[in-house]
Amino acid sequence: MSDRAMAVRVRQHVNPLSRKFQQDIAVPDWSTIYEQPSQPLHLDIGCAKGTFLLEMAALYPEQNFLGLEIRYPLVVAANERRDRQQLRNLHYLWGNANVHLGKILDGLPLHTVTIQFPDPWFKRRHHKRRVVTPELVATLAELLPAGGRVVLQSDVFEVAESMVQQFCAHAAFRSTCTDWLPQSPWPVATEREKCVLNKGLPVYRWQFERRAL
Question: Which of 134, 186, 192, 202 would bridge with 117, disulfide CB 3.0–4.6 Å?
Answer without folding.
Answer: 192
